[in-house]
Amino acid sequence: MVIVTKPDATPDQIDKIVKRVEGVGLKAQISTGEQRTVIGVIGDKTLLGDMPIGSMSGVEKTMPITAPYKLASRQFREEPTIIAVNGTKIGGRKLAVMAGPCAVESTEQIVTIAKHVKNAGATFIRGGAFKPRTGPYSFQGYGLEALKMLATAKQETGLGIVTEVMTPSEVDIVGDHTDIFQLGTRNMTNFYLLREVGRARKPVILKRGLASTIEEWLLAAEYILSEGNPDVILCERGIRTFETHTRNTLDLNAVPAVHQLSHLPIVVDPSHGTGIRSLVSDMTKASVASGADGLLLEVHHDPDHSMTGDGAQSLFPEQFEKLMQEIKPIAIAVGREI
Amino acid sequence: MVIVTKPDATPDQIDKIVKRVEGVGLKAQISTGEQRTVIGVIGDKTLLGDMPIGSMSGVEKTMPITAPYKLASRQFREEPTIIAVNGTKIGGRKLAVMAGPCAVESTEQIVTIAKHVKNAGATFIRGGAFKPRTGPYSFQGYGLEALKMLATAKQETGLGIVTEVMTPSEVDIVGDHTDIFQLGTRNMTNFYLLREVGRARKPVILKRGLASTIEEWLLAAEYILSEGNPDVILCERGIRTFETHTRNTLDLNAVPAVHQLSHLPIVVDPSHGTGIRSLVSDMTKASVASGADGLLLEVHHDPDHSMTGDGAQSLFPEQFEKLMQEIKPIAIAVGREI
Amino acid sequence: MVIVTKPDATPDQIDKIVKRVEGVGLKAQISTGEQRTVIGVIGDKTLLGDMPIGSMSGVEKTMPITAPYKLASRQFREEPTIIAVNGTKIGGRKLAVMAGPCAVESTEQIVTIAKHVKNAGATFIRGGAFKPRTGPYSFQGYGLEALKMLATAKQETGLGIVTEVMTPSEVDIVGDHTDIFQLGTRNMTNFYLLREVGRARKPVILKRGLASTIEEWLLAAEYILSEGNPDVILCERGIRTFETHTRNTLDLNAVPAVHQLSHLPIVVDPSHGTGIRSLVSDMTKASVASGADGLLLEVHHDPDHSMTGDGAQSLFPEQFEKLMQEIKPIAIAVGREI
Amino acid sequence: MVIVTKPDATPDQIDKIVKRVEGVGLKAQISTGEQRTVIGVIGDKTLLGDMPIGSMSGVEKTMPITAPYKLASRQFREEPTIIAVNGTKIGGRKLAVMAGPCAVESTEQIVTIAKHVKNAGATFIRGGAFKPRTGPYSFQGYGLEALKMLATAKQETGLGIVTEVMTPSEVDIVGDHTDIFQLGTRNMTNFYLLREVGRARKPVILKRGLASTIEEWLLAAEYILSEGNPDVILCERGIRTFETHTRNTLDLNAVPAVHQLSHLPIVVDPSHGTGIRSLVSDMTKASVASGADGLLLEVHHDPDHSMTGDGAQSLFPEQFEKLMQEIKPIAIAVGREI
């Protein structure tokens, strides 16, 4: 950390800051510039804990040098994390493809779609049992019943299951049915939920918060990792910006950025990332080309009769099938396969 | 709702859309323009439920005409909601002033600060017992112990208590000690928590999400109201924008906007809204002038030794006292009092 | 400046960076931490010029310590800049009130409004002669004719004139008629225009860019100041965020922030800052309470027949008159007068 | 356009609105809902001009149905625009690759880089002669001298030239030397400049404004098109968001979105779009996969000694060469070639 003092900071104030830093066993290196004094803090910065340096008299600002996450960082683990689940691997050479409807609506619906996406090459069936909805009057998912429908779809196709968990008290019941927990964008800062899935023994897809920086996202992953669960899969799903033509702005910069900062795998959700069916295919191709470790895609065979408005961004099965063919050469071009 | 069709929508597609709308008992009024057909949907739109009109063939977009919240709207209730709690009223002529430290650190600390802010004119003591923190290694609050410390502060000063609740399973225990629940910005879309405090019988301060539109914020309030708890107090606390000089961008536009859209009271938190101590006083004055029903302010008598980095935005007791004097004439100028 | 090296930076790379810094006469102070080396650069950083330190091998990032603007900074000039123009002063105790229509539409219109706002206490008449419009088919202003109409309004009322200049080649002709140049939000980074008004001898209102940080805004002011024109008035007019309920998000945090960073006066435009007539009065009050040195307000006596869509945010003359009365006690409460 | 009235709008107010609409020869279709009346406006909406419907009494909001640009729209011209320049075509099957340094620094520098990028497959040499810089003390480009250096580079390699023009009065001189004008992100709303290049007879690359919506961007293109210049090439170069890890957020959603809305070609600038050299290659691949018609890339053989800070995002020639090979199979996968 670097501490920048105010132009009018007194020697006494600077002295107090230095004493505070040294008092916890760190070294303070003072640089006296023309306008202000800068204090470099050297050593294991966790010794500082939550010490409110920034609020001390004479301090203008503090600037961190190293990232605030540890277990999630590339420094902590150089090799990429590869997660084995349901006979597949996520984070390796082969792309993970998780596809399915926004919400599980019936056994027939989910089995039909699961068969479609399995045939087209998907490795997981996704579908919401518990649905986070902006308003209280929207369909909130069929819950436990939907988990059972997903289990049937798995039985019929062999596909692993990805489904969302929304609150700590449901981690057990969802965990009994799913292969991978999904944490939605609206729950990225639900810290109790992060800890609870951190204590579970199943992989977790952690969607980026609507307005979360990459650093905050990796700190959310750190919550899960620090509880002992090493199997976190990050998911870029679009951020909120001023642009209103698309529902979200898919931030593909995050894919190579995360690969540099962290050893964790990262998948992309172009369905939510655009919110518009006609943009999904092109952005799926772009996601693969950017180096994503996998895809999360909405597919519905009858979106006109789906139970959530997200039908507007779902691919039809034939579109999905075509897309799976189209991304193959791109995957190969970036050293991956499908 | 208005349904805008694509320029190349076929008569058959338009017909299907109309049938779908009329099928649930609504009226569809067709306007055939030069480039496209627009279908006005007339009637009680809740009949539409989650019908995915937007994903039907031939539809370009749908545009809502009325707000998606009901109980929170000014149309539902013309008179402002006034909430009586601990002998005070929130939403009436007198401003509610909730002040205290970021975190409860000790009985001595919280009692000292409570006495200070009481003397200066505050009506509530605020302080965190359970703390939402971006990273897992930061101080997470003293929990139940801190709730007891707050109770002591209340006993000593008579001030009502405002403290945060972070997860559904802690609503009961927090409710046993607090007068007002606080839901933090990171939990505005924790829908299970919204429902749980909706079932409690205590007022709730609902902070605006970091990147939540006013409409989404009122929908979050609707979750609470729809469970039977009418006592929701909105809190503007700064939104996330591109500006990095301040920690957040305090959106005071939201104060008169909420007063027009809703009957619920709205308070402002200039401490988080700026993140910089030296900006808090001016922005508190601006908050009062904008018509806020109250204030949430961080006050700490010894921020250099506080346990969270938020010390950098806490007022000293003497600053708070001075500020309380300074806002009096402004409050009077806008028809309020302190 | 602080130079942070990569964890794997070699001694040779660090040596090259140090040599580069010392080569221009600066001192490099090396701090060797556990994970990386940090190099503090001490001395007059303008010696660095555009040296691309950030792109040198082994460098992870550079962090500036001091602001990149000089003449605009509070360090350069401690006393607030007070600008005398047309017998009034901007930046002093008395608030500057600039009011008028979006566009000058006729002599009768502008004289009528000028008389209204003069009577209510305005100190300047504002109105667009050259109009920046998002699309080419919108009314672009009456140009020179409108400048003459403004001159008539000045003759009749004695009010100084504020009007926009859009391109370097029109600085002379606009300068012949106006008392204060206005540079619009879409021209804040029109650097040739900044330089040209910097060479003129009239005050300049510099509106903040739609997505400009406070630092970039002060750098734009620096362009004008560095050409020799000391009379820059900053104008906060709302920034672009994700919120769509209001046209812009008025960032009042900028008012006290600018006062701390700079000696230049700052006025606020709540008309564009909200874009909604019914929010303007409350936000004008908030602007005054935040410490603004003045106001820029749209007033139109017949907005239903105005020539630009901005009529939707214009106050009626009677609203303006009432507002001028209402802000008086607030101005006094913050040590100002109207 | 759809006009939504206020819940309390009177029949008289609605009547006035209807009369106003019908007065210019449009048809007004009234839908009386439960809560409010909605008026659909049918006909050629340019008849409305700037009529301030939104500010009329009784109006809550107006919602446009059709896009405000015309010449730029896909409706106006179904076939993609293909621009022939310097023996190459932009917008066709073959990708345009424009590469070179941020600024032209010397004849030797620009010729050296031009030869490198020509050999690697670029079709244009790019380099700044007139440089828009955030602050007045940064290197502003060598101007006319640099234009001559670019001419030499063209002579030596045959590559067409892309260089920026910053102000209307320099359109002629820049046009005498360049093959394609570049309009920078900070000048997207410099409307006089848009018109001036609209009157020139050379293609124009129009970079998206830092905080411009796709609609505003297409409206800026409309300015150029409406002056008679049909050869506009859009360039996505990253938008400003809350994320600070990257310099900008490259919005690749814009590529397929623009292709749907407009017939104009769109290229991508991953150098500015990320601001970080180590992210450029992956994002270039993603750009090609998203369907971009071309690329704008910064390449510098000696970024450690470049004259602008943008060296930090420049590729080395060998990186560029490798990248050109790597994107070939991706281009083919999406039906293009290099």
Task: Give the SSE layout.
The structure is a homotetramer of 338-residue chains.
Chain A: E1 2-5, H1 11-23, E2 27-32, E3 37-42, E4 59-63, E5 83-85, E6 88-90, E7 96-100, H2 107-120, E8 124-126, H3 144-157, E9 160-164, H4 171-177, E10 180-183, H5 191-199, E11 204-207, H6 214-226, E12 232-236, H7 254-261, E13 266-268, H8 270-274, H9 277-290, E14 294-298, H10 317-333
Parallel strand pairs in A: 7-8, 7-14, 8-9, 9-10, 10-11, 11-12, 12-13, 13-14
Antiparallel strand pairs in A: 1-3, 1-4, 2-3, 5-6
Helix pairs in contact in A: 2-3, 2-10, 5-6, 9-10
| Oligomer type | homotetramer
Figure out the total of helices of chain A.
10
Radius of gyration of chain A over all CA atoms, rounded: 23 Å
The parts of chain A where pLDDT drops under 50 for at least 5 residues are none
Shape of chain A: elongated
Please state how the strands of the largest beta sheet of chain A are arranged side by side.
7-8-9-10-11-12-13-14
